[in-house]
Design brief:
Layout: E1 6-10, H1 20-37, E2 41-46, H2 66-77, E3 81-85, H3 96-101, E4 104-106, E5 110-114, E6 117-122, H4 132-141, H5 144-151, H6 155-166, H7 186-195, E7 202-205, E8 211-215, E9 221-225, E10 233-237, E11 242-246
Length: 249
């Protein structure tokens, strides 16, 4: 029997975006990945924008994602620890996954230590210099008042509005992200600022849709997990080292 000793990290599945056929194809690919890691995964970190839109009404959640959620249930029932990070597309997670999957919901950053290695984990939205407009929107959308008001909208209308909005997102066009030179990435800039006061072996993010592994100094690496519309990338920590990998490529 395989030993469960690995940590897996993935982000930006954006389940629900694109045509139904493409979304189902992507969901099936994610399920195959989860099936491939289920024997040796100790912890799985899904680091934001797992869904292209998510909102939990008191008695209603968005339809779909049956195979994906079923596979997660299989993993958690087998003892795998699951973490869901709130991204900018699925920030309206509340307690549904806590109850159904015994998942831990992470609203912002998570700091962990495993096998003597220190990790700083965050979806990556709203960090670093610039983007003041989004940072203002994030505060509004995450406010209790905004969530209460949205919950008053009938799901047919509310989810319909959100899905129409998401069709204009940068991932919906299925184009590669603009890639700045490594040291100019704003999350690299943010990571260097974090390292001025705290030490981490790995700073891991999603959001940028770029699979990146950048050595910040002789002991610390910046890792961006990429996305699953084009690249299908994830990271795995085996207890000694972290590696960025491609699935089915």
């Amino acid at each position: 029997m395989a030993i469960r000793n690995k940590l897996y990290f993935a982000s930006d599945f954006h389940l629900g975006t694109g045509t139904y056929a493409k979304y189902r194809e992507r969901e099936a690919r994610v399920v195959r990945w989860l099936d491939a890691i289920k024997t040796d995964a100790a912890e799985v970190f899904l680091m934001g924008d797992v869904f292209d839109f998510w909102f939990e009404y008191k008695t209603v959640v968005p339809k779909g994602y049956i195979r994906f959620l079923g596979k997660l249930a299989e993993l958690t029932d087998a003892g795998v620890k699951l973490y869901f990070f709130k991204g900018n597309h699925d920030m309206w997670m509340f307690d549904y996954f806590e109850k159904e999957l015994n998942a831990t919901i992470i609203s912002n950053e998570l700091e962990i230590e495993r096998n003597g290695k220190k990790f700083y984990l965050h979806h990556g939205d709203g960090l670093g210099p610039g983007d003041k407009f989004y940072k203002m929107l994030k505060k509004i959308f995450r406010s209790k008042l905004c969530q209460w008001l949205f919950a008053r909208i009938h799901p047919n209308l509310g989810v319909g509005i959100a899905n129409r909005w998401s069709r204009g997102s940068r991932i919906a066009s299925e184009k590669n992200e603009n890639h700045k030179p490594g040291q100019q990435e704003w999350l690299v800039t943010y990571s260097r600022e974090v390292l001025e006061t705290h030490f981490y072996d790995y700073l891991v993010y999603g959001h940028r849709h770029l699979p990146l592994d950048i050595q910040l100094n002789d002991k610390t690496r910046y890792i961006n997990l990429g996305e699953w519309v084009i690249a299908n990338t994830y990271a795995v920590f085996d207890g000694e080292r972290m590696e960025l990998k491609y699935f089915e490529k």
